[in-house]
Each structure stands twice: as structure tokens, then as C-alpha cells.
Amino acid sequence: EIVLTQSPATLSLSPGERATLSCRASQTVSSYLAWYQQKPGQAPRLLIYDTSNRATGIPARFSGSGSGTDFTLTISSLEPEDFAVYYCQQRSIWPDSFGQGTKLEIK
Amino acid sequence: QVQLQESGPGLVKPSQTLSLTCTVSGGSISSGNYNWGWIRQPAGKGLEWIGRVYTTGRTNYNPSLMSRVSISMDTSKTQVSLKLSSVTVADTAVYYCARGRVGDNGLVDYWGQGTLVTVSS
């Protein structure tokens, strides 16, 4: 199974700041890397797929980059509703796997 | 707008079989463009794929659960079912139903709201 390691575990920032979240894979996942946002009591929501494609309805402040084994989710200017847990997910090799999550909290 | 709704017992005794149903509305589950699966999340922890089923009947199961899991679909009822046998407290989690796009290598685009299953005597 491909292991995804996210860093940092917790990121404390203020609204308006830039957030950079990282995801490293134990082996290459090609471009099959997605990012999900999860708020308490809710199902995850797809933000980014195939490394850098925004899902329908996702604001332009969310962007993804990377290749191979190293990927980044960037939120250019944090809005209050962006504080949540973010998961990366690979679907290159079954079983598709998720990272352990990065909690983005208000500083 | 496709909607997925999980249902089933919220409490299961150890060693018994966990059975959940996902009812899909707003779309057909017969299309070969999609697969249908289950993902779970223990409280305060990350997400784990359980498995998925295709309209052909083919299944993919997580190797860590393969010996205990069965996923099937009933197109006439637009339902997807999960059975997990010999459960232990480690199977306590929120269970999500999910739709994946076959043409996008299984990208999950719709999730159910999730249902909490507690394994306890």
C-alpha cells in the first residue's frame, strides 16, 4: 500500500495568510493525487484532483502542485471557512489511500 | 444532483456482521461510468478505503479487510450494500458511501453524509 505522509500535522494561521500543506508519497503516484477538505461532522469535499485541477465550485484561492511523490496544496489567502482538516489521497495503486490529515486552525 | 444516504444499525456486537445500505437518488447506479464503494473513519482518525463495486459485479477490496468484507449492488433498488463480518471494537467508525468515476481512475466525486457504527457488547 502506498503511504501518504502529510505535514505539518497542525498549521496555525490567521485569516488572510497563505497556507501551504504538503503530502509525500512512499512511491510515485503519477498525477493521481487529490485533496479533500473535511469539516467537523461532515463528509470530505473534493477540492483538487489530478494534482492541480480544481473541482467544480472550488474557489481559485485553492491550488495544487507537485509530481511523482511530492505534492502541495496552497490556499492563497485564508478565509474563515477554510479552517478545517485537509487530506491528500492517491488513486494510482489500489488500495487508494489517504494521508493522515493536516488540521488548519485559526491562530 | 446525486445524493447518497447510508443506513443500518448503529450498534453491532463483537463477532457479529455489520450490514449497511447506501441508497442512491438523483441518478442511476447502472451506468458503467461509475463505481460505488465504502470508506470509513474512526473517531478522530483518518480515512480508510474498505472497497468498491463496479456495475459489472467486479470488486476491489482493501487487502487488510478482504477476508471479512463483501460489497454488492442492487440496481433495481439503486442500493449498494456493505457486509463486514467478525467485527471488533476496531471496526467502530463513521462509514461513508462514495461514488467513483471509472474513467478518472476511481476519483470520488460524491459522498454520503456518513453513518456511525459502534461495535460494543
Topology of this protein?
The complex is a heterodimer of chains A (107) and B (121).
Chain A: E1 4-7, E2 10-13, E3 19-25, E4 33-38, E5 45-49, E6 53-54, E7 62-67, E8 70-75, E9 85-90, E10 97-98, E11 102-106
Chain B: E1 3-7, E2 11-12, E3 18-25, E4 34-41, E5 48-54, E6 59-61, E7 69-74, E8 79-84, E9 93-101, E10 107-111, E11 115-119
Parallel strand pairs in B: 2-11
Antiparallel strand pairs in B: 1-3, 3-8, 4-5, 4-9, 5-6, 7-8, 9-10, 9-11
Which keywords apply here?
heterodimer; A: 107 residues; mainly beta; seven-stranded mixed β-sheet; four-stranded antiparallel β-sheet; 11 strands; B: 121 residues; globular
What gap, in angstroms, lies between the N and C termini of chain B? 39 Å
Number of DSSP-assigned strands of chain A: 11
In round numbers, the mean pLDDT of chain B is 95
Our count of helices of chain A gives 0
The ordered H/E elements of chain A are EEEEEEEEEEE
Low-confidence stretches of chain B: none
Instruction: Bin the helical content of chain A.
Output: under 10%
Proportion of beta-strand residues of chain A = over 45%
- Could you report the average pLDDT of chain A, rounded to the nearest whole number? 96
- Described by the principal axes of the CA atoms, the overall outline of chain A is globular
Task: Note the gap between the termini of chain A.
Answer: 35 Å
Characterize the main sheet of chain A.
Answer: 7 strands, mixed
**Class by SSE composition of chain A:** mainly beta
Elements of chain B, N to C (H/E)? EEEEEEEEEEE
Compute the number of helices of chain B.
0
**What composes the largest sheet of chain B?**
7 strands, mixed
What does this molecule look like?
Chain A is mainly β. Chain A is built from no helices and eleven strands. In chain A, the strands form two sheets. In chain A, strands 2, 4, 5, 6, 9, 10 and 11 form a seven-stranded mixed sheet that branches. A four-stranded antiparallel sheet of chain A has the order 1-3-8-7, with no helix packed on it. The mean pLDDT of chain A is 96. Chain B is mainly beta and 121 residues long. Chain B has no helices and eleven strands. In chain B, strands 2, 4, 5, 6, 9, 10 and 11 form a seven-stranded mixed sheet that branches. The mean pLDDT of chain B is 95. The interface between A and B is medium-sized, with 23 and 19 residues.
